[in-house]
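Weekly structure sync, notes
Attendees: PL (lead), two postdocs, one rotation student
Agenda item 3: pending single-chain targets
PL asked that the sequence for the first pending target be pasted directly into the notes so everyone works from the same version. It is reproduced below exactly as submitted, 85 residues in total.
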Amino acid sequence: MLEFSMFQRLPSWSQAEVLAKEGTVLAKRQHLEWSVSLYSLNNRFVELWEKEGLQITTSFRKDATALAIVEPYLEYVDVQHLMDT
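Predicted structure, written out during the meeting:
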């Protein structure tokens, strides 16, 4: 498994490949024309922004809280099945 510091040094296209192979997709959302996916990679959060074949990765500062990171995704989480009990 690739250390996160090494991941950050990779070019963007290579980071997207590593996310696809080694990351875990946690959530997806739309922002304007961008499709944004939240990944977990080596106990860190990473976003993959995609539009028209372009892929850009972003990571978060270590001191960012999990709630602050996942908040933009909450409206896309389907919890209806939890309420049907």
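Discussion points:
- DSSP finds four helices and four strands in the chain.
- Helices lie at 4-9, 12-22, 66-70, 80-83.
Action: rotation student to compare against the earlier draft before next sync.
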